């Protein structure tokens, strides 16, 4: 099935898509449609993922502009040549749009894209930062986080932890968009990323579909039980319940002894 698709429909779909995207990019005055290995940029390391822009229509489908308010702040973690940054600033009423990218070269290209399209942007405050996601001080006013699979494994876990730490410092509603969600299970294990939307990739194999799928999560604040110091009353109650259980347990033991001894 996959081989048949690869030989027949796939080339047609790929070339139709690339013609459409080239047209869209030309119309918007940007250039982001390439794939670049991180070795070629001198920033490769285990856990970091190469540059490949998110599918053009993903953002609008997963986050319709009417669901964004004028005090929302967007960040693309691993912003590459700035496609998602451009789309966020172009079509949404965000107060601020931020891109964080490890490669200076890609970030320069992103800056050139944003400069060329400045007149079309709805959001005027666009910040492109050259930094490692893991060293970057995550701003506590961000409310929409975009990950297009920039990191995998422990590096991604550390990036997710930065989002959680920010929500703990300043509790607020944060939505996370995750394209090609390789580390979905890891997010689930934290117990704090609640899946709220899913766009499935319609491709012939599960693996290939995942690479084209996108999820949205809402981040919950750490529960009060995990953070608040326990009050004296609750400590006493907990002690009382434990004592009552112990008494009941001993009573059961004696009852059994009594029955056996008879
Ligand atoms: C799959 S691309 C996504 C690009 C962009 N978000 C988009 O959708 O158009 C992943 C990007 O993450 C960047 N990246 C990888 N590791 C990074 C790190 N530790 N810090 C910042 N950026 C990183 C890569 O250079 C690459 O541009």
Brief account:
By secondary structure, the chain is of the alpha/beta class. The chain is 45% helix and 15% strand.
What would you say this structure looks like, in words?
By secondary structure, this protein is α/β, with parallel strands linked by helices. It folds into two domains: 30-226, Vaccinia Virus protein VP39 (Rossmann fold); 232-261. The chain has ten helices and seven strands. It has a seven-stranded mixed β-sheet with strand order 3-2-1-4-5-7-6, sandwiched between helices. The longest helix has 30 residues, at 232-261. The mean pLDDT is 89.
| Strand neighbour order, sheet with most strands | 3-2-1-4-5-7-6
Straight-line N-to-C gap: 74 Å
Q: How many helical elements?
A: 10
Order of helices and strands: HHHEHEHEEHEHEHEHH
In this structure, how is the largest beta sheet organized?
7 strands, mixed
How would the global form be characterised? elongated
Whole-number total of structural domains: 2
Average pLDDT figure: 89
CATH fold assignment of the largest domain? Rossmann fold
